[in-house]
Every structure is written in C-alpha cells, then in structure tokens.
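Tokens as discussed.
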C-alpha cells in the first residue's frame, strides 16, 4: 500500500490498534555510520542537479544541562565552558582533576599514567546522572576504586548543582507521575507509584529470600527438597528484582526524558523552520536523523548565504542561556562530507586540494 498525505492518518490509526509488528522499511536513524552502514549511507544521493547539506546540533544535551543548572540553581560552572567556546570534556577534566590541558586532551593520560582524564570525564558525567557507584564506575573504566572515588568527589565539588538537578527531576516524577521538557511536553510514568510502592513493601521479603538462598547454597549435601526450594526462592527473587529494576529504570528515564526530550523539541522547532525555508526557496528537506537535518539544495543555490541561513535555523530558532552551535557539511552523497571551507561554491565541487578526500575526484 502506498502511503500518501491523504491516507496517512488512517493508516497510523489502524497500525496503533494492531499489535502485530509490520516492517515498513528501514529507519534511517538505525543505519550505523561505520562499517557496512557507511557503505549503505553512501548509496543515498540527492536529486540530479542538487547537493546534500547536513547540519548537526553540537553537544545539545550537555548544553541543556548547563542551561538548567544556570537558570534554576545559579550554577555557571558548566555554562561558562560553552560561553567560552572551548572543548567541553577537556575543560571539564581540567576543572575536575585540576590538571594542565596537555593531560586532558583526547587520549592523553594523567601525570601518573593511571587514567585518561578526558575519557573518564565523558563517561563519568553519564555515570553521575545514572547514580552509578564508584566501584561500578572503576570497573567500567578499568581504574582503581581510589581513582573512581576521587573522580566522584571532585565532580560534585566542581559542578555543585549537577546531582541536585538530577535528584529534583526524579523527585518531581515521583510526586507527579510525569516530567516535562523545557517546552512543556510531558513524559508520563503512569505505573511508577504503584510499582514503587509494591517494590518498597517487598524489600524486606527480598532480603530474607537472599538470606535463605545463601543458606541453601552453603549446604554441603543439599537434598532434593532443598534444591526444589532453592528454585522457588530464585524465581521469587527474580520477580521482585524485576520490579525493583523497573523502578530504577523509570527514575533514570525521567531525567533522560527532560534532557533528551528538550533536545528533540529543539530539533523539531528547527525542523519546522527549516521546512518553511525549504518551501520558500524550492529546496528539499530530506531527513531529520538524531540531532541532524539534511536538505537537498539546487547547485545554483549552494552559496555561503544559504549555508548561513541553515546555520541560523539550527542555532537561532530557539534561545537558551548557552550558545547553540552546528556543524554543517556539504555532501555529493550521504557521508561523503566536505566542510564549508572545503567547497568551491562557484563550480559546485570540492576545492582542488580536497578533491581526492574520498579516494576519487568528485
């Protein structure tokens, strides 16, 4: 069946009432950008006489966090990094570990050679927002418990409102059963209170089951009834743990819903304005993929002025207390990317020094 503007809503209404999974084609967002996925992406080409222009929002989620920390808590620690226009994770690592920049750039080790400050910073920010323990973080990063504990302590001191921001969002969800993006879009958690209450009520039961399981496992010669009882105990532990895990998942998801949801809102608003721009100029709005929009521009329209318009769409459609940035690339085919300063706009091709960037002249 061909999906058109006329029958689209009727088809959607039918699909959402049908539990069967029906393949409707490949989702472009799921195409990997490396390996075989890269080769598949290369097969997408613009209409003849046109060229792709892709624009990707830069570090939108950390910028949203920095905005919330500044506007709600008066904490300028993360926001100032974006205002200064310096590398986010290098600067955060310098601030957190009190190290010189040479130790905090990509792939560099600290003076002791024990860990990579920038890599730890990038993963550690997520670890803090997910309430990961220092011990789990140490294992994930392959560092000692002391190094992990030092990171958590220094992070809290350097970015004092980060944990408060996460905790407040989760507490709002616990109280109200939903969270909101910065633009008022709700993500509801209708079963949270019921499941959380049941999980709390069963916590002592779960602890007793662990104790019973340990005693049975420690028996030198368990009997058949012992083994049967052990199976029943394990089944109940699994059921109770699943509910407990679901509560934790929803609490983490509530924070993600605010940050990622706000990023999605911003991209939607950018997309709406971009669609209007494309309509006015006769361009094609081909795709919205993660934090990126992709247009096809007639070669005659591919100018510095057009690039500036797309930049304005991505960075000025909404206003936060931190600047928004975008990375714009010109693509004769998807993922054959040229920077805006690598392009010959008069002849609509890469500049001579970049013509063989992908192994063949374009």
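Sequence:
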């Amino acid at each position: 069946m061909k999906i058109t503007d006329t029958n689209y809503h009727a088809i959607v209404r039918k699909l959402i009432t049908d539990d069967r999974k029906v393949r409707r084609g490949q989702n472009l967002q799921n195409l990997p950008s490396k390996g075989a996925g890269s080769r598949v992406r290369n097969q997408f080409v613009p209409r003849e006489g046109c060229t792709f222009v892709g624009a990707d929002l830069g570090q939108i989620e950390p910028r949203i966090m920095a905005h919330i920390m500044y506007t709600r808590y008066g904490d300028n620690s993360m926001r100032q990094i974006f205002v200064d226009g310096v590398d986010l994770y290098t600067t955060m690592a310098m601030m957190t570990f009190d190290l010189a920049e040479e130790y905090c750039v990509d792939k560099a080790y600290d003076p002791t050679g024990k860990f990579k400050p920038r890599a730890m910073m990038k993963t550690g920010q997520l670890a803090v927002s997910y309430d990961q323990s220092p011990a789990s973080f140490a294992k994930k990063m392959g560092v000692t418990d002391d190094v992990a504990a030092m990171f958590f302590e220094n992070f809290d001191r350097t970015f004092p409102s980060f944990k408060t921001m996460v905790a407040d969002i989760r507490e709002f969800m616990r109280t109200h059963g939903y969270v909101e993006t910065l633009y008022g879009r709700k993500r509801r958690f209708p079963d949270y209170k019921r499941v959380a209450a049941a999980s709390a009520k069963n916590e002592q039961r779960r602890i007793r089951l662990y104790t019973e399981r340990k005693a049975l496992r420690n028996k030198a010669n368990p009997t058949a009834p012992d083994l049967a009882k052990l199976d029943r105990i394990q089944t109940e532990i699994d059921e109770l743990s699943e509910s407990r895990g679901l509560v934790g998942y929803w609490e983490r998801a509530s924070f993600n819903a605010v940050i990622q949801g706000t990023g999605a809102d911003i991209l939607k608003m950018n997309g709406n304005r971009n669609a209007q721009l494309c309509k006015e100029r006769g361009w094609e709005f081909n795709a919205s993929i993660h934090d990126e929009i992709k247009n096809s521009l007639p070669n005659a329209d591919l100018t510095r002025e057009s690039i500036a318009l797309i930049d304005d769409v991505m960075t000025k459609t909404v206003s936060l207390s931190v600047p928004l940035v975008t990375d714009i690339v010109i693509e004769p085919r998807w993922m054959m990317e040229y920077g805006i300063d690598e392009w010959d706009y008069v002849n609509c091709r890469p500049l001579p020094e970049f013509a063989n960037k992908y192994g063949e002249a374009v």
